[in-house]
Amino acid sequence: MARVVVDVMLKPEILDPQGQAVQRALPRLGFDGIADVRQGKRFELELEGPVDDAALARIREAAETFLANTVIEDFTVRIEEDGK
Amino acid sequence: MSLDTVTNAEQTPDSAQPWAELGLKEDEYARIREILGRRPTGAELAMYSVMWSEHCSYKSSKVHLKQFGEKKPDSTAMLVGIGENAGVVDVGQGYAVTFKVESHNHPSYIEPYQGAATGIGGIVRDILAMGARPVAVMDPLRFGAADHPDTRRVLPGIVAGIGGYGNCLGLPNIGGEVVFDPCYQGNPLVNALCVGVMKHEDIHLAQASGAGNKVILYGARTGGDGIGGVSVLASETFDATGPAKRPAVQVGDPFQEKLLIECTLEIFAEKLVKGIQDLGGAGLSCATSELASAGSGGMRIELDTVPLRDNTLSPEEILMSESQERMCAIVEPDKVDRFLEICEKWDVIATVIGEVTDGERLEIFWHGELVVDVPPRTVAHEGPTYQRPYARPSWQDALQADAPTAERLARPAGGDALKADLLKVVGSPNQASKAWITDQYDRYVLGNTVLSSPEDSGMIRIDEETDLGVSVATDGNGRYTKLDPYTGAQLALAEAFRNVAAGGAKPLAVSDCLNFGSPEDPDVMWQFAEATRGLADACLELGTPVTGGNVSLYNQTGETAIHPTPVVAVLGVIDDVTRRTPIGFGEAGQLLYLLGDTADELGGSAWSQVVHDHLGGLPPKVDLERERLLGEILIAASRDGMIDAAHDLSDGGLAMALVESCLKGGNGARVVVPEGLDPFVFLFSESAGRAVVAVPRSEEVRFNDMCGARGLPVARIGVVDGETLDVQGQFTVSLAELRDAHTGVIEALLA
Amino acid sequence: MTTRVGVVTFPGSLDDRDAQRAVRLAGAEPVALWHRDKDLHQVDAVVLPGGFSYGDYLRCGAISRFSPVMDTVIEQAKLGMPVLGICNGFQVLCESHLLPGALTRNDSLHFICRDQKLRIENADTAWTRDYSAGQEIVVPLKNGEGRFVADEHVLDGLEAEGRVVARYATQGAAADGFGNPNGSYRDIAGITNAAGNVVGLMPHPEHAVEPLTGPTTEGLGFFTSVLKQLVNA
């Protein structure tokens, strides 16, 4: 089975309170040198059929209309190669 | 892009400027040039355009809003009136209470979760800026038809946003409204109310005085959130083309806001602040110009010192940014260090961005270059005023003539038909239990919630030693107001007043959120003019001044405006919250009394909507003198322990009130239709000025004597008893059947 | 000498003053503790209150767990000091590994606020002595991430050692507060460590201490229990 990964991130200009809170906590735990943190979501979609252009187009549509809120979020779609 | 400085503007008077794109009219742009004696810089143009937008300047509404001041009743309770972030009312024992209701309609349609969330954030900062600790929130909400797909998109997000922000902020959500009507499809109304408490000496105002005092910006960093949001979101109607045109959205961070609250209250406690303003719509443009305009002198700001989340922002964008969770304070130089220390304690970023000057100008510099040089009053307080034309709509007479008489709308005849209609009304989305929504809000946090939804009002204890408390109710009925805007607005006030009194509190003051269609439509403008006139007249008569509020216009899709929807919030005080009156019938054997007169008034009623999908005729008549008397009786009966339950009669009439009180208290009722009254009218009429109360038998004589002596008509209609609602000679329905009909409705449609 | 019960305020704690009120009504002296301060100021017990510390960002309790005060709380808890974590405090205790398991998003995916019926399962902990095993009480519940999860092995261990302190009572009508509100495994509402001094509880007993503002006063027992435990110790 083929796997397609959709990563959803807040658009760069949109405030990411979660990322900010994590970034502020890191130095307190001794993890220095991290300039910025942004937190996102990762969806792993297992396809029944082949990953062809039509399937990818459908997934992009799903991402655009459902997985991501394109008012505030961007997304990327990529095919994950067999993990072996 | 080169920097448009004041010098540059003087040297290039003929440069074309995008005033129209920014929402300014040609004469407004000309007026700016006249004020400045040159063309504005880009930054100045941004400031004027946003501050002169309908949303910030109230240019269409202010000629009508003036009445709230002109007809202001004598009230010793009012400490701070209209014009500040929120009005302040004296509630005794040295306490002052501030409250305000505001709209966040358009942003909530575009991005329901964040729109509703930032609506809470904004109103909470308004209350905080007055010097008060915010203690509760409420949300009057209106959506399209409950079964419409867009309601399903919008409502869950809005409810989650209100909960997500308010719960995380730690403010109990104690009431509000949820109303469905197709007229709000594409234009949901998301109003938000906040109540805050302080001691009299803690009242703070938004003014910058004292040359040399520092201007401190603190809270979140400034990003590109909602740039142009105020103008674009509030001044134009949506285009139907969809997502591509969606503008930038502000994202709320309730955690940051919680820190801002605690940090600000600690700063207030140490008396470190001369003046303070929250940053909301129009961001720094608004805060700096309002602070300077209300102060004694000028102000100088070094805009490049503003901490940014996005380093590419231009000075215009920084001035326009609506990044949330920010405040601006005026602080004496020797107190700056301590101020910054407290901010550091709470992990709140704080920066001195300028100072108060002894000049008369607001001057804003960008890396040493002057980019704004304006008289602050012209930005903040001397915006344009429109006398919009208005006229009674041509369709108004026909609408009013279409009265729901027995000939026009078939009325239920006989017990079975009455019961069937009752169950329809009880299970209709507007009358059904809203628990699925309100259970997503924390009503317990802070530990002072005495009454909350589905009670008539929300009530908060403000002093644990003395049990002093305040209560708030919000009401509005777009259907009534559509039928008759003058009366409809008065009915909204009367109902909120009655709800507060039913809980046992004395109504003191009003805040209003006026939601209407486009002011450019003379029909809408007439509705607005009539509603404000009605509300101002009624406030005068009931002695409850309007302390502030908000106007939301352009709530329409294409040519179709929403029903005119003035939402009225009434604040009341109660000396001893342990005497509050709940709605639930808690004890079997208590006697049920109907207070007030019942007439055949079904225009705009829940029954006419649910059973016949009809809107026509006239709304119920208003008798404000009667409302005042009813209020006095309810308050006295609560104080003296004469009643154990009280429920105001409004949508769905007596029938709905009985059902809600039975279900809440877990007891049934046996009711007799009074002699000479039609059973249908008895159950479903929505005549105003009425309440149903439960009187312990031991108090019956005393209660009757009081009502008799004061001249309030009352009728003993039954007794709390059993596990059914039994309307004698008509029908009997079990509480289980009523509960089945009343619950699960909203989640079935929307979850 | 009055018993001193510390209540920690993290950034974003919300029910801290409510926990202080409950401590006071139980007859002890509430002491405000600040997350940045390692010093516990001679308190005899500690409450980690409800709220959304650090906005619940990353994971609930994950950032608070690393605050300076928690170093001392963890150290003292291991030495036997009574510690009660309510709601967000429970999440902090799990993130600190003072208690096993984790709290995840409610199965309804919604925040829920309701008056909840609980059954006290273990009346031998520092915080539940004033109840009897099997007693049913009603206290408010309000959480978005209150679903207790752990692997089967851990759950079996908790059961075998009697470390389930309270369960959501499910044998009755939803209108009366019965039911598992968030999908917690085995209806678990609260657990304790092996020694019985550290208790985590998802519902809010501190909001059921006054008839005026709570559904009952049946939450007060958690605070009077610890008082007795300390006085008798």
Q: State the CATH superfamily name of chain C.
A: Class I glutamine amidotransferase (GATase) domain
Number of domains of chain C: 1
Residue-averaged pLDDT of chain C, rounded? 96
Spans of chain C with pLDDT under 50 lasting ≥5 residues? Answer: none
> What is the ordering of alpha helices and beta strands of chain C?
EHEEHEHEEEEHEEEH
CATH top level of chain C?
Answer: Alpha Beta
Task: Specify Rg of chain C, calculated over alpha carbons.
Answer: 16 Å
| DSSP E strands of chain C, number | 11
Beta strand count of chain B:
28
Main interface by residue count: B-C, 33 and 30 residues
Note the beta-strand portion of chain C: 15-25%
CATH architecture label name of chain C: 3-Layer(aba) Sandwich
Largest sheet of chain B, if any?
7 strands, mixed
CATH topology-level fold name of chain C: Rossmann fold
Biggest beta sheet attributes of chain C:
9 strands, mixed
Secondary structure category of chain B: alpha+beta
Q: Give the termini separation of chain C.
A: 13 Å
What is the count of helical runs of chain B? Answer: 27
Written overview of the protein:
Chain A has helices at residues 17-25, 53-67, and strands at 2-10, 40-47, 73-80. Chain A is an alpha+beta fold and 84 residues long. Chain A has a single domain (2-80), classed as 2-Layer Sandwich (Mth169, Chain: A), CATH 3.30.1280. Chain A has a 3-stranded antiparallel beta sheet with strand order 2-1-3, covered by helices on one side. Chain A is elongated, with a radius of gyration of 16 Å. The model of chain A has no long low-confidence stretch (mean pLDDT 87). Chain B is an alpha+beta fold and 751 residues long. Chain B contains 27 helices and 28 strands. The longest helix of chain B is centred in the first third of the chain and has 21 residues, at 149-169. Residues 229-247 of chain B have low confidence and may be disordered. By secondary structure, chain C is of the alpha/beta class. Chain C has a single domain, classed as Rossmann fold, CATH 3.40.50. Chain C is built from 5 helices and 11 strands, in the order E-H-E-E-H-E-H-E-E-E-E-H-E-E-E-H. In chain C, helix 1 (16-26) crosses helix 5. Chain C is globular, with a radius of gyration of 16 Å. The chains are: A alpha+beta (84), B alpha+beta (751), C alpha/beta (233). The A-C interface holds A 17-18, 21-22, 25, 28-29, 39 and C 54-55, 57-58, 63, 66.
